[in-house]
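Reviewers of the previous submission asked for a worked example of the structure-prediction workflow described in the proposal, so we include one complete record here. The input consisted solely of the amino acid sequence. No template or homolog information was supplied to the procedure at any stage.
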Amino acid sequence: MNESNTLILRTAALFLMPLQLLFSVFLLLRGHDEPGGGFIAGLVASGAVVLFLFSYGVREARSLLRVDPRDLLAAGLLFGLASVFPALLVGDPLMTAQWWYLPMPGGGTLKLSTPLIFDIGVYLTVVGAILTMVFALSQAESDA
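From that input alone, the workflow returned the following structure tokens.
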């Protein structure tokens, strides 16, 4: 058995990966109001998948992801592009933040915004770019 493929690493990866992904969502959602945001959240999410890849291999990590990382990258770019159009639709300058408050059951409100849409785009772009590179490097190493 390979030293980097130990039972301890495999077990730790199964417990840490969901926590890392949850933390990445937390960083993403608080990023437009406080420190955090799409970039660092994308790095944390990528780190979770890379930890799984180191533990279980490229094939298992690709099957866990269920989508090609290049598709995530493309979707992220589309989200970023889509975040500029609401300002244009209401006559504001390009990239002006727009906010929507949606009433929720129980009396609360859900605050949605174009900065959040942009952050989601950055998140998906970072995850897609990093995992595309890591998968390609890992695949090349395993083929050699």
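Residues 7-143 form one domain. We consider this example representative of the routine output the project will generate in years two and three.
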